[in-house]
Design goal:
Structural class: alpha+beta
Low-confidence stretches: none
Strand content: 5-15%
Oligomer: single chain
Distance between the termini: 17 Å
Largest sheet: 4 strands, antiparallel
Number of helices: 9
Mean pLDDT: 91
Shape: globular
Number of strands: 12
Order of helices and strands: EHHEHEHHEEHHEEHEEEEEH
């Protein structure tokens, strides 16, 4: 429900912020290139590991190796999932380019891509470890995370998406779902249920404490997060800098006590009014104020609110007045609440 705030009302061909970019958009190209770079890295790792002489059941480290391959397969699925959501039918390969020698892949129907990736993950999950058996916990991809990713992809695959008529490049197309939609839905139900039945994760914290803990670098391995994309503390990642109440660079020599916060990722103001008045999530998520350049709280008077789930303002350990981005706050890519909702 969040979006990048933009005060420019004119069409911008280079950015998908307002859904009015063109095929020549540099932003779209960079997303495309980054996602396929991720696919290629995963393909190279999986191919070389599975064809390595050490990848055999007689190796005492075999369980660790199959776990690594499973993690790479889930990461590959994450990259393809984003490509499918953005673009629909896409070029598709599960082998590295240097093996296929095919530098111009044909378009593959999205339903076939979903099916192949889901089947691949089903096999990978059989040889992966539970969160409880991974020393890094939810900062690594577990069997439960693989199951949750299967459910997410299957639910997306079974739903409606915009499909252009075959060979017609001038039509906007129509919203359709595949003939096998109910098979995908059954898969989503089955694998979400697998996560629940495992008993590995639960909802013991209050809603806001989940996010406050993430903003304070607390990793919970048996609660809501199933897989968190890990960032290095005060070194990488933008979570809590792009979200949260803006804290503008202060005037003079005294910086704001929290450092600078961009706060450009917002929620739509009217979203706030979709919450029941007694819903405790409403005021936690939808921030109505920010800090101005004099470090004074200032009410927003426009059509958006600050997304306060992730915010540097919650941090009490390590993010001081000299910091800007590169917060190191993890992003919970898969959560137990996602699974329950699915």
């Amino acid at each position: 429900v969040d979006f990048k705030a933009n005060s420019n009302e004119t069409s911008q061909i280079n950015s998908p912020v307002r859904f009015d970019c063109t095929s020549a958009s540099g932003t779209v190209e960079s997303v495309w290139n980054a996602l396929y770079a991720g696919v290629e890295s995963a393909n190279e790792f999986i191919y070389n590991m599975e064809n390595s002489p050490i990848y055999n059941e007689e190796n005492t480290d075999y369980a660790d190796l199959t776990q690594m391959v499973g993690e790479a397969k889930v990461m590959r699925a994450m990259f393809y999932y984003e490509l499918l959501c953005y673009f629909g039918d896409i070029p598709f390969s599960m082998e590295p380019t240097y093996v296929t020698q095919n530098f111009v892949l044909p378009m593959t129907d999205r339903d076939e891509v979903y099916k192949q990736i889901i089947d691949d993950l089903k096999g990978a999950a059989l040889k992966m470890k539970s969160t409880a058996n991974i020393s890094e916990g939810v900062e690594r991809i577990s069997k439960e995370a693989c199951w949750a990713m299967i459910a997410r992809m299957a639910l997306q695959a079974g739903g409606y998406s915009l499909r252009a008529p075959e060979g017609n490049t001038t039509s906007y197309g129509t919203m359709q779902r595949p003939a096998s939609s109910h098979e995908f839905y059954q898969t989503a139900r089955d694998y979400a249920d697998s996560v629940i039945v495992s008993g590995t994760h639960a909802l013991t914290k209050s809603y806001k404490q989940v996010f406050i803990d993430e903003c304070n670098f607390i990793v919970s391995n048996n609660d809501d997060p199933i897989f968190e994309i890990p960032f290095a503390q005060a070194s990488t990642g933008q979570w809590g800098y792009r979200q949260g109440a803006t804290a503008q660079s202060s005037e003079g020599t005294t910086p704001h006590i929290y450092g600078e916060v961009n706060g450009g990722v917002r929620t739509e103001a009217f979203y706030r009014y979709t919450f029941d008045e007694k819903d405790l999530r409403r005021d936690f998520i939808n921030g109505l104020w920010y800090y101005n350049s004099s470090s004074l709280p200032t009410m927003r008077n426009d059509y958006n609110c600050h997304n306060n789930k992730w915010s540097k303002l919650w941090n009490t350990v390590g993010l001081g007045n000299q910091t800007t981005g590169s917060t190191g706050i993890n992003f919970a890519y898969l959560r137990y609440t996602d699974v329950l909702l699915m």
